[in-house]
Amino acid sequence: MIAADLAVVGISELATPEGNTVRTGPDLGRLRVIRDAAVACREGRFVFVGTETDFHEAVSVAPGGRVVDAAGGTALPGFVDAHTHLPFAGWRESEFEERLGGATYAEIAGRGGGILSTVRATRAASETELTATVRARLDSLLALGTTVVEAKSGYGLEAETERKQLRALRAAAAGHAVEVVPTFLGAHTIPAEHRESRDAYVRRLVAEMIPGVVRDRLAEYADAFVDPGAFTLSEARTVLEAAREHGLGVRLHADQFQDDGAARLAADLSAASADHLEYASDEGIAALARAGTCGVLLPAATFFLRMERRPPARRLVEAGVGVVVATDFNPGSCPAESMGAALWFACLLGGLSVDEAITASTLNAAHTLNRARVAGSIEVGKRADLVVHAVPNRYHLVYRFGVQRVRTVIAGGRVRLDTGKGAPPP
Questions:
Q1: Domain boundaries 79-368, corresponding CATH code
Q2: Tell me: the pLDDT tens digits for 97-143?
Q3: pTM of the predicted structure, to 2 decimals
Q4: Are the C-beta atoms of residues 47 and 4 closer than 8 Å to each other?
Q5: Region(s) of the chain under CATH 2.30.40.10
């Protein structure tokens, strides 16, 4: 018999990608689907995944162990959100109202709003305040079914506040159920005090800020935003090559508002991901495929900014790029931390199938964060991160958009949330 200390039974449908690496092309939508399923865990890992009939024959739950009834819900891997900006202070709802009145993202940024507005608030916040804010946001992510999250700095734009953001991430993540993968985004935009001395800020990033972050082990990745209002291709290359030389992985905000050539730069740098990509050229997408760089789609941000371009999901799939879906949670262009919402827009705006979107938000996302060997799928041996959604099958996650129905969240083999509300009858 297989010994277990936690089991989930009564699963109407279990759907998961499989494997330890990225899924591309036709494989993106290939899931293992088990009807009338059950899973068992021991010491934080999956030890059984199969039908409930086989579970009762093969698994023994130890005295004192727990058996959770999914009550006809659907089980998926915990969501892996591969692009967020968690550690910030303040919101920008007034800018949202301006955009509804016709102002553009670039216009707001040009008069000192946008990212620089959040920079001012984050610089003013204490580290204790930021830590408490991040922990509350991690609680919210967990309740929405996210068990791994990438989180960027980028609202300090000077050494101490960037480090403050990253320290707040580390402190908030300590002991929390959601695993945090930290990214240094000092190259988010040029700070106001360096608008007339861009080169000096780039030099500071390379000579001071990156070495300090690496010395204190505050980040796993570095990122840069290529945009007319942020960094040029040359500046981003300088920063990210320095980060890579110091041992950090590389990510890139690429081709969000125009074809800046940033997708090609991400490929040249063998980046883990190129994110946004609404305006990426065919040449840039082909380069990503050759380099094995994932394309991270942020469709909720595309929707929130009311962009004319849609997420290039089908182009990426057809080119053989590893597609990832993430939220882009931030106070300006996507103040929503829900991966469920990201799935709605990935399908309804980007044209992914439900099964493709599930892989893109779990296994592929884990791959781009170097976590695919432990997370992103429900398989024996992997960390037991699982979410029961109170719906009769996976299609309802998008078909009945606009409503979250997370019933049970298991992270690291422990029940972190259990509402006790079952799925409605099919």
A1: 3.20.20.140
A2: 888 888 887 788 777 778 999 999 999 999 999 999 999 999 999 99
A3: 0.96
A4: yes
A5: 2-77+377-418
